Amino acid sequence: MDSARTPTSPSDAVRITAATGRALATEAVHAGRDDLAGQGLHAPPIDLSTTYPSYDSRGEAARIDAFAATGAEPDGPPVYGRLGNPTVARFETALAKLEGTESAVAFASGMAALSAVLLVRGSMGLRHVVAVRPLYGCSDHLLTAGLLGSEVTWTDPAGVADALRPDTGLVLVESPANPTLAEVDLRAVAHACGSVPLLVDNTFATPVLQRPAEHGARLVLHSATKYLGGHGDVLAGVVACDEEFAGRLRQVRFATGGVLHPLAGYLLLRGLSTLPVRVRAASANAAELVARLAADPRVARVHYPRIGGAMVSFEVHGDPHEVIGRVRLITPAVSLGSVDTLIQHPASISHRIVDADDRRGAGVGDRLLRLSVGLEDVDDLWADLDRALGERAPDAIPLREALSGAE
Ligand SMILES: *Cc1c(COP(=O)(O)O)cnc(C)c1O
């Protein structure tokens, strides 16, 4: 087992304060809602407008010029839905508070968010990207295939400084990484980046467990589809960053159209309000399952990050496809971060699009299973996993013995 410790306790999370001096748990339920009481509202309104009326077209021209210059959100109504949306803006404001950044810009999916970052840097002639494997399968594919004209150099965290070139526009890491849960020393990598922006995909940790901007990351990316939404019913992405970069991201979003729907913005704001509670409860379940898996002779290896969290991966001695076929309470499905527990086989699904040698080289073995632990009772989850793991071989070697000397 890589490591297993009690996940961040409630008091750890409470101590993480936002720039306002309020605790994270407080911001999670209040950020993005400051104006509501003054409007006589409690729940945030949903603005579905695609366009906004104005009898002052000279004024509109000035507002559009201002947006073209800096990408700053126009004062007053957004002109057109592709420039921004007030309901989505509430989610952006709240997420920026939780991540401790000036701004955040939301997109239609995590991949749309990453694409916008690559387009911002590429449009400045900085097409070279330095990245550390493993990454989420489609992020790896987007870079490897050069779909947006970027060129990637893969390296390990210690090699980042040497991999930088004059045209390097971005350094990209995930920590904990999908699906091996490998962790990167963010402060060390941020230092190695010098003036090149470091993007940390913080999807797995969420701002409850880790705030990369505090360690020097200029860009913090989320597939908001996962923990931020938290209920498996919203596809979304977001980049938390400084206002200067946010302006460029809004300009790219305006020009390429990967906007988030206002209903999704509403659900994400609602999801944030329970994020700290969900992450802590699911992490406690995960830590208990890690202990049981690690003691089980049918399991060859368990991966669990030092910072904790609700993602667990493990390698089985037997056939991982059989395990997937036998779960009943746990849902065999890709994606993660929902209230219910999901399991999938990365080599077949989430990382299928990555070349098999690259995938194995990044530690994504063919016997690896990835578990996104939800909020069910932990004994019910274990009963399902125990059955899914199949017969216990009578002469199987216990994990601790099997692992002695490995690592
Ligand atoms: C799912 C995922 C993405 C992609 O996000 P989508 O919302 O599916 O586009 C990016 N990074 C990580 C770590 C993910 O798990």
Folded structure, characterized:
- The chain is of the alpha/beta class and 407 residues long.
- The chain has a domain at 276-402: Aspartate Aminotransferase, domain 1.
- It contains 15 helices and twelve strands.
- It has helices spanning 10-15, 24-30, 57-70, 86-99, 110-122, 137-144, 160-163, 186-193, 206-209, 243-256, 262-294, 320-326, 356-361, 378-388, 399-403, and strands at 103-107, 128-132, 151-155, 168-174, 198-201, 219-223, 237-241, 299-303, 311-316, 331-332, 342-344, 368-372.
- The protein has a seven-stranded mixed sheet with strand order 1-7-6-5-4-2-3, sandwiched between helices.
- A hairpin with a 7-residue loop joins strand 8 (299-303) and strand 9 (311-316).
- It is globular.
- It binds pyridoxal-5'-phosphate.
- Pyridoxal-5'-phosphate binds next to helix 5 and helix 6.
Brief synopsis:
By secondary structure, the protein is an alpha/beta fold. It is built from 15 helices and 12 strands.
CATH class categorisation of the domain at 276-402: Alpha Beta
| Mean pLDDT across residues | 93
- DSSP summary, beta strand count: 12
By secondary-structure content and strand pairing, the structural class works out as: alpha/beta
Give the helices and strands as they follow along the chain: HHHHEHEHEHEHEHEEHHEEHEEHEHH
Computed over alpha carbons, the radius of gyration is 22 Å
First-residue to last-residue Cα separation: 9 Å
Strand content: 5-15%
Largest sheet composition: 7 strands, mixed
CATH superfamily membership of the domain at 276-402:
Aspartate Aminotransferase, domain 1
Which fold name corresponds to the CATH topology of the domain at 276-402? Aspartate Aminotransferase, domain 1
* CATH A-level architecture of the domain at 276-402: Alpha-Beta Complex
